[in-house]
Write a structure and sequence with these properties.
The chain is an alpha+beta fold. The protein has one domain: Arc Repressor Mutant, subunit A. It has five helices and three strands. Strand 2 and strand 3 form a beta hairpin. The N and C termini lie far apart (51 Å).
Length: 109
């Protein structure tokens, strides 16, 4: 089955490590494309393309400030990703608890 376009949903958009890095970089506040490119060591056209994908799925927001466009992470749009990943976090926490309990029982014997 062919993979969905990266701009079709948030999961495909964040599958790209550079996009995740951009989201993290923008988390503290608004930044122009040039700052993102410099900080992450990426070419400005590449950052612009990544920002377009992230914007298409509403993970970043943009606002014009004179001639510049400032981008920021849309944390509300990330919440469904966080909640979905939390399911797996709980699973692994339970698994690790079971392993720890088994090891402690073995150690007591």
């Amino acid at each position: 089955m062919p993979r969905a376009a990266t701009s079709s949903d948030v999961f495909n958009a964040v599958a790209e490590p550079q996009r995740r890095a951009i989201l993290e970089f923008l988390l503290p506040g608004e930044r122009p494309v040039g700052d993102v490119a410099t900080a992450l060591g990426l070419a400005q056209p590449s950052v612009s393309k990544h920002l377009r994908v992230l914007s298409d799925v509403n993970l970043v927001r943009a606002r014009r400030d004179g001639r510049r466009i400032l981008y920021r992470t849309n944390t509300r749009a990330i919440k469904p990703l966080y909640e979905w990943a939390g399911t797996f976090e709980r699973y692994w926490r339970n698994q690790l608890t079971r392993i720890k309990e088994r090891a402690e029982r073995k150690q007591r014997k």
